[in-house]
Write a structure and sequence with these properties.
It is a single chain. The protein is mainly α. It has helices at 2-9, 20-28, 32-52, 57-76, 87-104, 122-140, 144-155, 161-168, 172-192. The chain has two domains: 1-114, Rna Polymerase Sigma Factor, Chain: A (Orthogonal Bundle), CATH 1.10.1740; 116-195, Orthogonal Bundle (Arc Repressor Mutant, subunit A), CATH 1.10.10.10. It has nine helices and no strands. It is globular, with a radius of gyration of 19 Å.
Length: 195
Amino acid sequence: MAADAIRSLFPLPGVDEPDDGALVRAALAGDGAGWAGLIERHNHRVVVSLLARGLLIDRARELAQETWLRLIESQRAGRLARLELPGLAIVQAGFLAANERRALVPGAALDGETLPAPGGNAEDRAIDRQQLERVRRALGACSPSARRVFEFVYDHPELTYPEAAARLGLSSQRVKQIVCEVRARLRRSLEEGAP
């Protein structure tokens, strides 16, 4: 009985699930189930790689989701000939994190640069409040349905896009599209207000 419990927590590859090769072939062919299997199998390593770069858990999860979306978009656009995981996803996530760090800290180096601690001096706190207000206004400008989807996805990080879509009564693709659109709007609002 204990052995069954251990096997359920740590399944042996090839016993109950397809190997990476089968999932990769399916994903490269545009199969959503192939992508879902790869994401389920490798997302944890992508998130951990972002945590190792110093990101907080919520932001690491967001960037991991964005990483997978970009890889899927690349495959659909025909720009992805090979898929070596988790390496490719970790590298993509690292680029996203580095770009974010450069945007937050003008002139910051790609590696080794630490972000200022939150709640520093009064000027930093005022800037943080201004940024939060811009984000709040940008989110308020979204349609109620887009806000509902965005907030649901971020209130339930444990759910995959297909699970969230099932609960919201939408397609998985539509949920991903809404989340990407809202994120882009929030980013633009922060970039427009940057000094």
